Amino acid sequence: MNLDLAGRTVVITGAARGIGLGTAKAAAARGARVAVLDLRQQDVDAAASEIGDGAIGLAADVTDRAGLADAFTAVAERFGAIDVVVANAGIAPRGATVQGMAPEEFDRVLAVNLHGVYNTVLAAMPHVLQNRGHLLLTSSVYAFVNGVGVSPYAVAKAGVEQLGRALRVELAPYGATAGVVYYGFVDTHMVKVGFDEDPLASAVTDLLPSFLTARITPEQAGESTVRGIERRAARTIAPARWTGYSLLCGLINPVLDVITAHHRPVVELVLALDVRSRAGRAAVPATAE
Predict the structure, then answer these.
(1) Is the confidence at residue 267, as pLDDT, over 70?
(2) Cβ-count burial 123-151 (b if 16+ within 10 Å, e if not)
(3) Residues annotated as part of the active site
(4) From the CB of residue 100, how many other CB atoms can be counted at a distance below 10 Å?
(5) Nearest Cα to Cα of residue 140 among 121, 127, 124, 153
(6) Cβ atoms of residues 84 and 134 within 8 Å
(7) What percent of the chain has pLDDT over 90?
């Protein structure tokens, strides 16, 4: 059964900019009441003002389980109910190998991108179950693409995929639904800083076919996301060009892993990442989506 967003309450984490903001705008355009959550109050206030239509902004950190629950309670008290929750908040590490990356950096990415999604699910669950609503978890094509150079990001996104699949089954007896959205390359601040301003990270994407790495706008990503919500879709892939790869990854990936492990450009890239990591220990902080 499709989900009409008109008059519904949609809560989106990591919504001050990028994909989260694009999703919030698309939901508001359909008549939804929108609550945008992000780290800084001034940022969510600006985002809510940009969205208009009675949107509200709340400062919340997805790594703070108690604070996140309080934020959801505040939204429910303001709007009367919460129907849809998009667990979108995420960060990306600076390109580095597993041996070169500071353990604190690895842990931080998992804390936000995986445990933060779980915390969001915990805060959202009572509301979504009560209203037979929908939970949408943000993953990435890195859930099924080799994560060389950004392994904690890929680990987190693969974990989110599995969490979403489990929730899809566990919520069904209660009339609620869950889904996973997989983004390819979206023209966000995170992508610009993480790839455009880092030649080694750019070298990773240069190894992929250009039609796969072509970027879509946050607005396009948000529109695809909301269409998936309206369908209560189990899987939404944006851009859709990644669908074929996702369906065949079980056959393609084992072959690609063998080839790339000995592909000279990849070997040189890994060695370059190791050299940089030893020199700077990946000192640049993770970049928010």
Answers:
(1) yes
(2) bbbebbeebebbbbbbbbbbbbbbbbbbb
(3) 153
(4) 19
(5) 153
(6) yes
(7) 78
Q: Which amino acid is it at 114?
A: L
Give the type of residue at 77.
Answer: E
Q: What pLDDT score was predicted for residue 227?
A: 98
3-state secondary structure the chain: CCCCCCCCEEEEECCCCHHHHHHHHHHHHCCCEEEEEECCHHHHHHHHHHHCCCCEEEECCCCCHHHHHHHHHHHHHHHCCCCEEEECCCEECCCCCCCCCCHHHHHHHHHHHHHHHHHHHHHHHHHHHHCCCEEEEEEEHHHCCCCCCCHHHHHHHHHHHHHHHHHHHHHHHHCCEEEEEEECCECCHHHHHHHHCCHHHHHHHHCCCHHHHCCECHHHHHHHHHHHHHCCCCEEEECHHHHHHHHHHHHHHHHHHHHHHCCHHHHHHHHHHHHHHHHHCCCCCCEEC
pTM of the model: 0.92
